[in-house]
Amino acid sequence: MSSGKTVLVTGGAGYIGSHACKALAAAGYTPITFDDLSTGHAEAILWGPKVIASTLNRDALRETIKAHPPNAVMHFAAKSLVGESSLDPESYYLGNVVGTLTLLEVMRETGLDTIVFSSTAAVYGLPSSVPIVETDPKVPISPYGRTKLTSEQMIEDFSAYGLKSVRLRYFNAAGADLDNQIGERHDPETHLIPNAFRAIVDPQTKLTLFGTDYPTEDGTCVRDYIHVTDLAEAHVRALEWIETGKGSHAFNLGTGKGVSVREILEAITRVTGHNVPVVLGQRRAGDPPVLVSDAQKASRDLAWSPQYSDLETIVQTAWDWHQNPDQHRWERVPEAEGIFRDGCARLSNRRM
Q: In what helix (H) or strand (E) does residue 31 lie, and over which residues does it extend?
């Protein structure tokens, strides 16, 4: 990379993308946020210039690269709801696959040769064993996972043109900025912890646990939770690492430790002083009992290890953000019910 240290961050107004922008700025880079704000928030763009446009907009990509010549790209822009992807796969293939291909084509046209790609553990599908390593079979079970895997494969194939890339497959992003500047605000909200907070503060809601009879210690699903600040730091480490290398490389990002839904709820009670109101539901098809990463490769090659991903820090930072009045300015439309896979649970409106 040249001395300019400018990075084009697609999806930089989103949950993980905005935290990556903060980490980039702290490391001396200038992030250029490129986001259509379909799911991101303008209020989260606090570091560097911004361009409001879609990665499907080839002209906007070209003009942005011309106006703010970057040395590399971090690509977060994507649709990411598993359930929605099954109901509307066309939009996922358009946004995730065609959007990535358009970005790669413009990068090639303009001589950009470095990309860090935000991928997902969903590329593995139902794991044959845990912890999951990077060389395990990739058999995604949702259109979302398949679009991310297809994007990974395109990026890997573009190494034929000299593209240097890192693909980061992370498990369950959680928590919020340690300084409480930015945090998690999805619409619909799809993650366990913020939905549990909403069940606490709204007497009209309950959190539904999908399955309490899994072959785990307490009968609930086990997942690998990683603090969003640790994820952001991993992206910066990956960028610095690929500067001196070539080819295409994939890394898992996680703690290597599984946490059950009930353990999450217990931690929430300890931090907030409130019990989470829950109702018990049946298992959902396709929810594996345990998803845990093996992140030894990232530890070895990127010199990265999670610093803030203990359960107490994850929950405390998320709770601090949930109580921050600023985060309520981010909401644009009435909240909808969300179905998600990170904790085998769902927030539902229920009068009791």
A: strand 30-35
Give the bridge partners for 350, in sequence order: none
Tell me if residue 29 is catalytic. no
Pairing of strands 222-223, 259-260: antiparallel
**Tokens linked to 314:** 């994850």
> Which uninterrupted H or E stretch holds 207?
strand 205-210
**pLDDT (tens digit per residue) in 265-288:** 999 999 999 999 999 988 877 778
What helix, strand, coil percent values describe the chain, rounded to 5? 40, 20, 40
Tokens 């099954």 appear where? 86
The single residue of 29, 124, 144, 170 carrying the catalytic annotation is 144
**pTM value?**
0.90
Do 337 and 349 form a contact (C-beta atoms < 8 A)?
yes
The string of pLDDT tens digits covering residues 157-182 is 999 999 999 999 999 999 999 999 99
